[in-house]
Amino acid sequence: RVRVLLSDPAFSLSNPNKVYALLGTFFRANPGEFHAADGSGHAFWADQVIALDARNPQVASRMARALENWRHLTPALQRSIQPQLERVLGAEGLSSDVAEVVSKALARA
């Protein structure tokens, strides 16, 4: 459903309030879908953080914080999340804002 709303004409990645309302709510208030067993929610998070970073690094870094405490999750979820954090960190042209959040998340033990 979130993917459908992303393509709605009323939504824009350039509007921080709409990003917070849609993506922020999904990442923080829908753990069942965000932490889906197949890892699709984590891959979606990485895709969106990378896309947002090109437009607004501050908003992207705020969305990146959704996984800053990933080490508190189950080992199965950690195995799904770590490669996505690494993918974001390795993204070409990544802003220092997002790089800092993701680097700190990866460094947490």
How would you characterize the overall build of this protein?
It is built from seven helices and no strands. The protein is mainly α. The chain has one domain. Helix 4 (40-55) runs antiparallel to helix 5 (57-64) and helix 4 runs parallel beside helix 6. The longest helix has 16 residues, at 40-55. The mean pLDDT is 97.
How many distinct beta strands?
Answer: 0
**How is the biggest beta sheet arranged?**
none
Low-confidence runs: none
Helical content, roughly? 55-70%
3D shape: globular
**Gap from first CA to last CA:** 33 Å
Percent range for β-strand residues = under 5%
Please tally the helical runs, counting DSSP H or I stretches of 4 or more residues: 7
Q: Which structural class do the helices and strands define?
A: mainly alpha
Give the radius of gyration. Answer: 13 Å
Order of helices and strands: HHHHHHH
What is the number of domains?
1
Average of pLDDT: 97
Outline:
The protein has 109 residues and is mostly helical.
List keywords for this structure.
109 residues; mainly alpha; globular
